[in-house]
Amino acid sequence: MKRKILLGLLVALGLGFAQKTLVFGANGEPVSLEPGNITDGISIYVQRQIYDTLVDFKPGSTEVTAGLATSWFSSQDGKVWTFRLRQGVKFQDGTELDAEAVKFNVERWWDPKNPTRIDAAARYEIWPELFGGFKGDPGSILKEVQVVDKYTIRFVLNQPFPAFPAAIGSGYFGIASPAAIKKDGAKYGSPTGSAVGTGPFRLVEWRPGEQVVLEKNPTYWKKGFPKVDRVVFRVIKDPAARLAALKAGTIDFTTDIPPANLKDLEADRNLDAVFRPSFNVGYLALNPSHKPLSDPRVRQAIAMAINKKAIVQAFWGKLGLTDGHFTPPSMKAFQSPKVTDYEFNPQKAKALLAEAGYPNGFDLELWYMPVSRPYFPTPKEIAEAMAADLSALGIRVKLQTKDWASYLADRKKAPGFQAYMLGWTGDYGDPQNFYDPHFACPIADLFDGTGKPLCVKELGDILTKAATTPNLEERKRLYQQADELTFNLALRVPIVHSQPLLAKRKNISGWVPSPLGSESFETIEKR
Amino acid sequence: MWSYVLRRLIGLIPVLFGITLLVFLFLQLIPGDPAQAILGERGTPEQLAALREKLGLNKPLHVQYFTFVRNILTGDLGTSAVSTIPVAEELKRRWPATFELALAATLVAVVFGIPVGILAAVRKNSLLDTLSMSLSLVGVSMPVFWLGLLLVYLFAVNLHWLPTGGRLSTDLAIDFRPLTGFLVLDGILTLKPQVLTDALRHLILPALTLGTIPLAILTRITRSAMLEVLSQDYVRTARAKGLAERQVILKHALKNALLPVVTIIGLQFGTLLGGAILTETIFSWPGIGSYIYEGILNRDYPVVQAGVLVVATVFVLVNLLVDLSYALLDPRIQYR
Asked: Quick one: which H or E segment has residue A496?
């Protein structure tokens, strides 16, 4: 015993000097570390290090791969999904991961009456968003969750949902230790409570406004990982201050660098610019309930008249891409080869506009966002560029904006904005998550001008079918159709798929950013 | 004296009520729905309705105000709409950081401002006078944000002399458990010299940034107060008595010139407690300023309401203390 202690002490001393601490510059404070109850990027980032999800994604891609489940399959009709769990995985509190533990987590997210939903104020808003509703809601996709045996869990659905593994594997749904949740009650996942998963790191301390400290999980199931002993999330909200901290070496790596800083990053010998694969779309929405825009030829003329390539080059440089598809490049399998972006051609556009009966153009109110988003870092300037292009057609653009909350609400209220800028970042690697919130009936984000959602039946039907067809090839075909149809309709003109800019110091290696927005730090090494 | 203090304290009650009303009404003036702002692009109508209900936004205005005041009186400052952490808890934890920074900034202002002001007055129209007055003009008009980043790039990024932000280095902060939350004091109390020096190093740049404007103001106030006193009869008398110039200035003139200076120091300190928003943001200083800033960005009404209320209350209290100390310093002022 004594020898063991001595040995341990020696090892500790030896390691003490070699302790590798990775410092991440977080652009904000985590809201909570309770899975299923958060939607903000930083919380999910921290959570990703503590918890594992049922399925994981191949590094740098949206392709599903084994996570806590080693395999999964669906029934013929696509309504029953069965997952086989990895055996011998332990939570960081020593309890075992089994099918009961998974069921416990899922029921907490899904069932609003679940007694372990300790905090009545908590919203658990992401479950109904991705799965149609809570338990008892008419739209709920999930019907039942069953423990088949110790290491097999089964989800019975009300309708086929081919994207189910990708959705349940998204970063919101880390599997937490039921024992820890029961023990902590309302404090679970807060700065004064614990957060216990099976992931590569375990929570040591969360000092709000300052830092979150994670330590290597010694019982992590993936042998040889993580590569560092500690990860510290240091909160530095201001982008300029964060870049300064990176330059000074206070932090090792960070996200959310303004695109304008790319040159500065590339000029610094100690730093590397890192690009996250694009998983978003920034678009110009054209409201069909507004008279001239109700004619598809007018909308196509607008799509043709905007010099998207030049705009992307000017505002994003190598951080943006425009290709006419509504889905980002990582969804290539679901994109139609027939869709190539409208050629920039003001003459043709003007002719098309004349054909539609507007040879002299018309007045158009174009709304730009009052806030900066990854897909539109400088909305006003981009709107001005688009307005300049449209003036060549005789379209007299009046630029408008209002505060963010009203902007989001008022675009839908009758009569709605005529044209506006907005965008979307995906939750999980399936085109459904891009198309349905915008075009599916009846939840579509299209408005008829009286405050009611508008349904484009042909597109809606394709999307309903695509969302419920178990056969992957069939789904690809359907989404390719949807791609062509949305392109021709030009209700949402995709302007850009932008790559978020990240940065690291030269001595950091093994960081593979995920298009989905957060990735495990287990592969990162520090020299 | 005591009845004067008591009367002043009672007089605070309507002031504080007025503050609650103003804070409440100002937030109502901001257009847009905070529930929509919190949920962002993706909120569904059901989620919006649920959040509005939870935040109490669907109740009539006077009911909302009444609830707000009643909660304050019971010591409940509400919970953050975003993090669901009680605001009072968060303010309590962040208070020492802001206080320490404001104190350090005031110290910067006093240590540099008063001597320079005195010298400028004594050597009126000298090179030093012109220089200090021009510099103080620059100081007052310099944007805090810009100055802060400038200092960071100069002293942290390029020269590596000082840290870029935060209150302690990452590694030190992992093991250190603050006692009082005043890290400089904690470093002394826990006998950890490395904590003390690290905390001081982190304090220098934010204190300089935050202290620049009060420093400039104090220099000017000291100078003009000194000039006025120096032209008084009793100074001439002191000089006529043959006292050394040094004694005339430091003993006779300074003592009287300090009266308005003390008032300004107090006022500035009160302003600093609340006005540290930009500095705290640049330096990732986990104080009340950055908390309110985040609350505003998130449209987190409970955080903004309670934060502004607490800062305003402290400001009023500091002012009261200044008035009282003024009364103590100047025998001509009577407690009535």
From this structure: strand A492-498
Cβ distance of B33 and A424 shorter than 8 Å: no
At A1, the pLDDT band (50, 70, 90 cuts) reads very low
- Between chain A and chain B, the number of residue pairs with CB atoms below 8 A apart is 138
Question: Which of B174, B296, B299 to substitute to test the interface with A, most A CBs within 10 Å?
Answer: B174
- What region, left, alpha or beta, does residue A256 occupy, with left being phi > 0 and alpha being psi -120 to 50 degrees? left
The closest alpha carbon to A199, from A357, A311, A408, A47, belongs to A47
Write the CA distances from B194 to A245, B101, B176, B177, B205, integer angstroms: 21, 19, 11, 14, 18
Judged by CB atoms within 8 Å, which residues 121-180 of A form the interface with B? 121-123, 125, 128-129
Residue in A28, A404, A423 closest to B37 by CB: A404
Question: Cβ of A28 under 8 Å from any chain B Cβ?
Answer: yes
Q: What is the pTM of this model?
A: 0.87
Q: Using one digit for the tens of pLDDT, what is the confidence trace for B60-92? A: 888 888 888 888 888 888 888 777 788 998 899
Amino acid at A420: Y
Distance CA A431, CA A279 (A): 11
Band of pLDDT at residue A22, cut at 50, 70 and 90: very high
Q: At CA A240, angle to CA A205 and CA A46, rounded to 5?
A: 25
The answer, for A440 touching chain B at a CB cutoff of 8 Å, is no
Give the model's pLDDT for residue B80: 84
Closest CA to B72 of B19, B10, B35, B11: B19
Is the Cβ–Cβ distance between A527 and A509 less than 8 Å?
yes
User: Is the peptide bond between A35 and the residue preceding it cis, with omega within 30 degrees of 0?
Assistant: no
How many other β-carbons are positioned within 10 Å of the β-carbon of residue A337? 9
Chain B residue closest in CA terms to A234: B170
| A188 shares contact with chain B (CB less than 8 Å) | no
For B94, other C-beta atoms within 10 Å of its C-beta total 24
Q: Do B174 and A207 touch (CB under 8 A)?
A: no
- Taking alpha carbons only, the member of B285, B272, B87, B308 closest to residue B183 is B285
pLDDT in tens, B149-190: 999 999 999 999 999 999 998 888 888 888 888 988 888 888
Taking the CA of residue A282 and the nearest CA in chain B, the distance in Å comes to: 12
ipTM of the complex: 0.85
**Inter-chain CB proximity B157 and A244 less than 8 Å:** yes
Q: How far apart are the first and last CA of chain B?
A: 8
